[in-house]
Known about the structure:
Layout: E1 2-6, H1 19-33, E2 37-40, H2 53-77, E3 83-87, H3 98-105, E4 109-112, H4 126-138, E5 141-144, H5 147-154, E6 162-165, E7 187-191, H6 198-211, E8 219-223, H7 229-235, E9 244-248, H8 252-260, E10 264-266, H9 276-283, E11 288-292, E12 306-310, H10 314-326, H11 328-345, H12 348-378
Parallel strand pairs: 1-2, 1-3, 3-4, 4-5, 5-6, 7-8, 7-10, 8-9, 10-11, 11-12
Helix pairs in contact: 1-12, 6-10, 9-11
Amino acid sequence: MRIAFHTPLNAFDDGRISGDRRMARQLAAALARLGxxxxxxxxxxxxxxxxxxxxxxxxxxxxxxxxxxxxxxWRAKGDAPELWFTYHSYYKAPDLLGPEITRHFGIPxxxxxxxxxxxxxxxxxxxxxxxxxxxxxxxxxxxxFTARDREGVEAWCxxxxxxxxxxxxxxxxxxxxxxxxxxxxxxxxxxxxxxxGVKRDSYRALATALERLAALPWSLSVIGDGPARPExxxxxxxxxxxxxxxxxxxxxxxxxxxxATSDIFVWPGIGEAYGLVYLEAQAAGLPVIAFDSGGVxxxxxxxxxxxxxxxxDIGALGDALARLLVEPALRERMGAAARTFVTGERMLEQAxxxxxxxxxxxxxxxxxxxxxxxGASAS
Length: 379
């Protein structure tokens, strides 16, 4: 099929480092792997940082203009899409194109990783939430990365909409380097951007937990950079000298090498949607230490490949990490299980099979919807 691929949050060709940009590329790769022609919808970003009505009006006007241009171009060339696929629609970046274009052509409308926000449904974001919800309801199929996302979106859909679980997955570019077990103190590693908000809060939680474990032997490698770096580095200033190394932002190959020379992946992950880095770390054979926050639990097997602490319980986070620090056999066993889990269940190949099933469901759902509409008009 010819599939229009829309990313309202960030431009598809935006090469900056982030999990959502990478997942968009992975989804497109999965569709191409299935033999479909993927046509990215460019110049159609809908993201709004602030809830002012002027920004919303501008985005809607831009969407109207882009929709008209797309429809005109497709009609002229005779190459209209046969399915519309939107990745990551939510109140700050609602899909302002897909619902109307799919109605115009009568083609299936598929959405992946939509999420709702009940606490924003009233007040200054209310109109944005309503727009996002109308898009949820228009979809023939939702691919849901986490149970939390499905629960939020399903409430605004009808029984005509299908849902399919698509667990977070990775598509490594290069084979992961062989992991080298530690000869001395356990080597911890974390990989995360340094920016205000929950990323900064996670770094603070990590620094506090490590201060309580200063008497145990360990070293920490921090891979990441960003505007909050001076503040983040200051959070770790009370740790013994030489314990922390700051690697900065690295490309994917260098990150993979950093994981291969580590023993434990630790990142609190406050508010994480899910976190592809947890899958990357497990693929490298590392057990994970994190909070049970957001969608983190959808990327690990708690108790088997990861130890998750209750969100914001820094004492429990430190206790979980201490357990892996003092039990080398446990961390090796969990690391081996982690690699088996990800390479056997959470790679592009397995995701492609689920997506193929989902597209068939979407086609069938759209056919039923059209038949129902035709029956209603005939009566």
